[in-house]
Amino acid sequence: MTPATDEIEAFARLQARLPAIWSEVHEQPRQPHSCLIVPSLSFDQEELQKVKGVPFYEERLMFMLMRLRRPGVRIMYVTSQPVEEDIVDYYLQLLVGIPPLHAKRRLTMLCVQDASPRALTEKILERPRVIERIRQWIGDRDRAYMSCFTTSPLERTLAVQLGIPLNGADPALLHLGSKSGSRETFREAGIELPDGFEHLPDEAAAVAALDRLKRDKPQLRRAVVKINDGFSGEGNALFTYPSPMPGDEPARHAAIRGALDRMKFSAPDHSRSEFFAKYAQMGGIVEEFLEADEVHSPSVQLRITPTGQLQIISTHDQALGGDSGQVYLGCRFPANADYRSLITERAHYVGEVLRARGVLGRFAIDFLVYRRTGADWRCAAIEINLRMGGTTFPFTALDFLTGGAIGGAGDYRSRTGVRKYYFATDALVSPSYRGLLPQDFLEIVIGHGLHWSPQTETGVLFHMIGALSQFGKLGVICIADSAQEADDLYQRTRDVLDMETHADRAGRGELHSMFDDFPHLMD
């Protein structure tokens, strides 16, 4: 038996323990248990480095510190670089009813002191003393589990070495969340998806697929070429067909190859050669670019619990940008009521397929909804993100802070019965924000009253605060009692930051410039 086989079998045994641990934690929150949080971005690092401020994306799971409101929980949060104590205290003060010092005694922040552009889990695995330190902290392994941003063979190895289960998808199932695997899963679920082709190995196969797509749909003007495991839309490219197209196949292929040089890449520093080198490494898809009089990009977030329950968690309308119009910038909660049931129904079908395959944990499904003027909404499934994502943290924060629940119509009411909305982004960015230390930023927030109010259950929450000084980038969640109020909170937040940093409006980030044009979809 090979070491890899031994590890897979050991991992399966650990995962078999997770349902009992999960049930006890949720049924008896006062019972002592330990949660290890490893916010590793275990993706292709070359692609990941194209995301601005990505070293600080490890801070996005800091909202999970709100689990400390359960008096029996202990948390260890591991990072590559130190997290400022002021940032940790910022999250702990959100624990209404729990003294911050009581929560802090149950929290261990562990830093591996390694800023190299590699996955955090890889850094942990190459440090035996760190692994032993974590083992000692865990204590009773029958009351401990690990939470991660995503799962990969790295996280599987770490779980086995620590002897605790992983609350996430088995890495053996990750192909279901690739671009090709998503299309296959949608077909199995029997839902609509764009016409296209998957499991394409290289540029030549992509050219042939683009040609066939155009022959099948002569009216098609554009198509999308996607790398199988791109992150946050950065592995996508928008292709525009030459017009007119030649008649014979060799000439058509030559014309398509020439048009590849004019593709619009989501990653700003991608070139054709770099893009297709990565495409040949990972494989990819080609699919039609859906166009209509009205097009929106909603998503549905789901969870399959360790006990096998499939839950629809939330719906969002996504803000997309970049040259290709496919880079995730932010989201609004909830999605437009006109098509909310349309996407949740289809998401449920997909969730059932994934549950039958043994998938576990949180994931999201992206859709396109579109219509001609006066026609009904149509829907096409685009991809599965078999991990946490940009919509995970805003809803987690809302749920922990307000203690409410999703209703049958897909809206959210707090424990006081008030309907809640939010706008959230990881991409509030401006060159003028660079140089702001966490202490500077928090002084601005406090001075202008930009904070969460437990009394009104409204306000602004911040994440990725550590990215401000180097990258001028910040995450924001604006929670309010209406969609318009959430938008107004975001507008006020960026206006305050611009004023305090003397921002040049011409140099503001894309989300600044496009926000006013992003429609109010929930009114």
Radius of gyration: 23 Å
β-strand amount: 15-25%
Structural class given helices, strands, pairing?
A: alpha+beta
The first-level CATH class name of the largest domain: Alpha Beta
What is the straight-line distance between the termini? 60 Å
Strand tally, please? 20
Q: Could you please say which CATH topology of the largest domain applies here?
A: D-amino Acid Aminotransferase, Chain A, domain 1
Unreliable residue runs: 512-523
The total number of structural domains is 3
Q: Can you offer a commentary on this structure?
A:
The protein is an alpha+beta fold. Helix 8 (179-189) packs across helix 12 (337-357). It starts with a helix and ends in an 8-residue tail after the last helix. Strands 10, 11, 12, 13, 14, 15, 16, 17, 18, 19 and 20 form an eleven-stranded antiparallel β-sheet that branches. Strands 5-9-6-7-8 form a five-stranded antiparallel β-sheet, sandwiched between helices. The chain has 17 helices and 20 strands. Strand 1 (33-38), helix 2 and strand 2 (73-79) form a beta-alpha-beta unit. It has helices at residues 3-27, 45-48, 85-92, 100-105, 120-125, 128-138, 153-162, 179-189, 203-216, 249-259, 272-282, 337-357, 392-402, 438-447, 468-471, 483-501, 510-515, and strands at residues 33-38, 73-79, 107-111, 144-148, 196-200, 222-227, 236-240, 264-265, 284-288, 294-296, 298-304, 310-321, 327-333, 361-371, 378-385, 405-406, 412-413, 419-429, 459-463, 473-480. The protein folds into three domains: 3-168, Rossmann fold; 195-288; 294-515, ATP-grasp fold, B domain (D-amino Acid Aminotransferase, Chain A, domain 1), CATH 3.30.470.20. The model is unreliable at 512-523 (pLDDT under 50).
